[in-house]
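Handout, section B. The chain below has 179 residues.
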Amino acid sequence: MELDRDRRVTKTKNAIRSSLLSLMAEKPHPSISVSELCRRADIGRGTFYLHYNDVYEVVEEIEEEILDYFRDSCFRYFDSENQAGFQALVNNSLLWVKDNEEIFRTFLLDPGSDFSAKFLSYLVDLFYYHDIKYHPSRVNKISKYKIVQTCSGYLGAVRSWVSDHFPVTCEEFAKLLIS
């Protein structure tokens, strides 16, 4: 019985998320109402409120899942601490971006979204933490700016790659980024 409930919850949350992404392709999320989202998801408002307080909470949940994925991926690379590990980090991240195209197209390319800035800040903090923990001798008054420059370049390239509908494979793009 509990398994059936879990499946229903998952199905409902997926319908809400999918409907939100669909609506966000049409307009910015601050202008999406709960009623509109419920109509698109074909659920009642009461069902929505069983899972979320508002549309912002759905957006935040999706953003947090993206950040958690990249945090976990980065920590796996940090543990391996080698070029092959970094290659795997970049390649696996690009595969995940491509597999979740709708989410990344919505969140990275939406000019009204602040997710790109949040994501960049998150990546910079992760790699700065990495340097402080694993390479303290590299850390100086300008090292964080080098990380900002590198992460900004990567993120800009990924945004362009997503915008252009992945004209090169993940492997080719990963090699380009790392070279």
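Note. The domain at 2-53 is CATH 1.10.10 (Arc Repressor Mutant, subunit A). Compare this with the example in section A.
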